[in-house]
Structures are given as C-alpha cells and as structure tokens.
Amino acid sequence: MDSLIEYLDGKRQLVNTQLENYVTANTDEGRVRDAMLYSIEAGGKRLRPILLLATIEAFRGNPSKGLPVACALEMIHTYSLIHDDLPAMDNDDVRRGQPTNHKKFDEATAILAGDALLTLSFQIITDSNDLTNDEKVFIVRELSKASGPKGMVNGQMKDMQYENHDIPLRELEDIHRQKTGRLLNFAVLSGAYLAEADDQVMDNLTAMAGALGLIFQIQDDILDVVGDSHAIGKPIGSDEGNNKSTYPQLLGLEGAIAQKDGYVEVAQNALHESGINGTTLSELIDYLSSRDR
Amino acid sequence: MDSLIEYLDGKRQLVNTQLENYVTANTDEGRVRDAMLYSIEAGGKRLRPILLLATIEAFRGNPSKGLPVACALEMIHTYSLIHDDLPAMDNDDVRRGQPTNHKKFDEATAILAGDALLTLSFQIITDSNDLTNDEKVFIVRELSKASGPKGMVNGQMKDMQYENHDIPLRELEDIHRQKTGRLLNFAVLSGAYLAEADDQVMDNLTAMAGALGLIFQIQDDILDVVGDSHAIGKPIGSDEGNNKSTYPQLLGLEGAIAQKDGYVEVAQNALHESGINGTTLSELIDYLSSRDR
C-alpha cells in the first residue's frame, strides 16, 4: 500500500501542475480565472484522472495522451462540485476544509467559474498536440455524453428531486450510476480506448468501473457516518442534514459495508477477467473501498 | 425586405425543429429535459444560427454541414441566457414575454438545464454524420474558445463587475465584443470554414462579424429606451433598472444611432471587400440595425 500512496501522490502532483497550467494559459487575468484556480487548487483526490492514467499504464499505452483527457475530466468534476455546492442546490459552505467557491467569491462568480471550467475542458482536448483528430472526437463525444443530460447532470437533478423523499435502493443506485458512475466509467473507458484495448477487455473494464463507482459512493456515505470530519474536510452527518438517502440509512452500517464488499469482489473479478496487468488498478479498488477521506 | 423576412422565417423553423429533435433525442424524460425544451421553445430570433447558415450559402457551401453547428451554437446562446437571468446574475423574471427558466422551474433546475445545454452542444457536433472528424475538431475548439473563459463567460463576468459603475465606451465595447461578439464571430467564421473559404475572405468576414456584434448590441440598447415592450418581450428601461451602462447613456440617443450607422458602414464595406455573393448577409446587416425587437 505504501507504494500505492507514493504512486497516487506522484500522479496527483502531475495532474495538479498541468491543471494549473491549462487554466492559467487559457484565461485572462481577473475574477473568472481566480475563481477557477481557487477550486482547482483546493485539492481533492484526483481519483478520476488517476484512474484514467492507471488504466492507460495497465495497457502500457502512451501516458502523454492521457494527461489532457485526465485534466479535462477533472475540470468537469470540479465544475460539477462548484455548481452542486450553490445555495440553490446542496447549499454547502465548506468543501475540502475550505469555503466553497460561492462563499469565497459570490454566487454569480461561482456559476461562471463552473461554466468556464466545463467549456474549457472541451477546448483543451481539441487543442492538444498529443491526440489525433479521431481520438479528440471520440473523447469529446464520450465525455459530453457522460457529463450531460443523460449522465452526470441528470443524476444531480434526480438527486435533488429525491431530497426529503424516501428512496428505494434501486433508485438510489441509478442516481449514483449517473451522478458519479458515468465520469468514473469514462475514466476507464477513455484510458482503455487511448491504449487501443480490444472490445472484450472493454466490457470487463466497464463492469469494473461500474462497481468502482458504487464502492466509492458507499464509502462516501459510510464516512459521513463514522468518518473524521477533519480528514474528510466537511462536517460529519451532512447527508442527514440535507435529507439525502444513503446506504447506511437504507441498509444499516453493517449492511452498507457488506454491500460495498460485494462490489469490491465484482470489481476485482472483472479486472481479473480482463486479463490485463492490473496490479495498480487492483490496489486502487481496495484503496477506494477502505479510504478514510 | 419581404423576401428576407420569409428567408428568416424559413431558417428559424428549420433550426427550431432540429433543436427540439436534438434535445428530445439526447435526454431522458424528466425535469432536465422539460427545462431545456422550455427555453429552447421560448423562441428567439435564432440570429446566430441564421448568420451561420447564410454565410455557408454565400459560399454555396453544403448547408447540411451547417445545421448541427448552428444548433450547437444556439444551445450555447440559450444556456447563457438561462444562467444570466438567474437571481445571482441579472435577476430577470421575464424573457421573450414568458417567465424565465428559474421562474418557471426553480434555480437548481435552471442551473442544471443550462449546464446540460452547454454540454449537449459539444455532443451533437461530435455525433454528427455530416461533418468530418477534422471539421468536428475545428468546430469544438473554436466554439469552446468563443464561449469560454476568454470569450463569452469573461464578458458576462466583466458586465457584472461593472454594474453600478461608470464605464468608458472603450471598456463597454470590449465587454460586448466578448459577451456577444465572440459567438456572432464564431457563426461567420465557422460558416466560412465549413464552406472552405480562403484566408483573405475570412479576414474581411471577421471584420464584418465584429461590426455586426456591435450593431446588434447598440440596437438592443436603443430598443431598451425607445422600443415597444410588447414587441421586445421585456419591460422598457430594464437596463437603467439594472444600472447597466449603455450606448444611449454614454452617447445620447442620437449619438448611439450615429455610432451604429458607422458600424453598419464598416460591416457593409467589409462584406463588399470580401467579394462573396453576400446579398442575404448584406440584407441581414440592415435588418439587424433597424429591427424593432
């Protein structure tokens, strides 16, 4: 696990540096840039970019093709956090231990910084010198599908509609599959595509990514009950305060852990079935399942 | 002018039908789709798509290449209106004679519908069967640049920052060049690109588009002073209420009209210099300068 931590740190640093470069190079001085950089520099696990880069490496693909796509993906994730935190949405004041974008700046700036990050993500893909035009078209298409009105945005809408309502587990998982699963799936899918994986491998990796998204979400819910607020950077119990349905609430804490362990097995099996050299990916699955932040 | 009105109606209908098709085909039933369709179906002049299609026609280019790009462009324009109308931004309750998106739905839905339209615009370009991959990459790159943090988004940010402040004409024009000019410029640029125009023609058309954007904005400001609130679909004097700097305020009504006439001459000359068959474009310039809504 120590070597995985080092691996994660290295990749995180690579992604952070490149993200800052992209934002600085493609914005004018001023408030929009400041607000974009604020949320980009607020840190975060960089899980999606790392998953993408680790997938390319598992196929011994060209890592330079992965970096612009990884950064575009993280920009979209970051924009979604900025908009989700707004008062009209989840109304969160703190993220990663710091004021959310609209608390640090104001609502108008936060809306625009989110819009700008979303837009810039497609620009940096098409601007890249490391991708062919065929690759750029594939990536823009899949990334927009994953994050658009049949993907992440729809998941967030349903998440809000179910606030203050009881929700069956099946519906809850559908929401998570759209809201967080689609981007995680894109990370694996695009990494495999850029490394020229064949179709059967893709199917297995899609299954792995699907399980991974739910592992990630269940652990999020678990940490909101039993986690350390300092480590996770927001108050414990905020899901309950927001009247959000969670796994522990629907299944109990033990039940949620059992559900998560089931998905870990699904993910590990699918990865094994794919036949690729997935040591890092396998470690990542365990890491995400047991993370404390 | 009668034939221009017919031309505009025909193109508007073509674009409206295709926009609805795109939204319906690429969304799930539910609140996000409803809110997207609400703003898409609220009408509007469809100026940007029409300018794009008219430019392609001026070069006798393939109009089927223009339609997906025209619709993507209008989706981005529509998303920007939805977000600009939000309480945290311009706080407008009425647009085109109807409740704004967040009044009809709610703020969260309006934010997400805007995000979804922005994202979908890039998807429909990359999904199109009528464009080559090279064309798709060019279009996504230029459209994201025009609408992103060095373009439209930055213009809106500056517009908000100057609210309640006196602003010199030079600054005001810089804002308009970013906020509305960049998308109008994209319409002409992408139309000419898809019709395989050469570089010198492009330079003239860029000059024309630049002037056209300012003509459009000055006439907007003039209509806010002397227009018919029923025709323009919002109350007269709303700029003053919002403490926005306008041409009539900076130059007087006569001065604003003279300024506009100057830009009409610039636009007509640049079009003439380009040497293309620009009858419709020339009529469009005059129409935009004298429109009453």
UniProtKB/TrEMBL annotation, chains A, B:
Pfam families linked to this entry: polyprenyl_synt
Cofactor: Mg(2+)
Gene3D superfamilies recorded: Farnesyl Diphosphate Synthase
Keyword ATP-binding: no
Keywords from the named record: Isoprene biosynthesis, Magnesium, Metal-binding, Transferase
Membership in a protein family: Belongs to the FPP/GGPP synthase family.
NCBIfam families associated with the record: FPPsyn
Protein name as catalogued: Polyprenyl synthetase family protein
Organism of provenance: Halobacillus campisalis
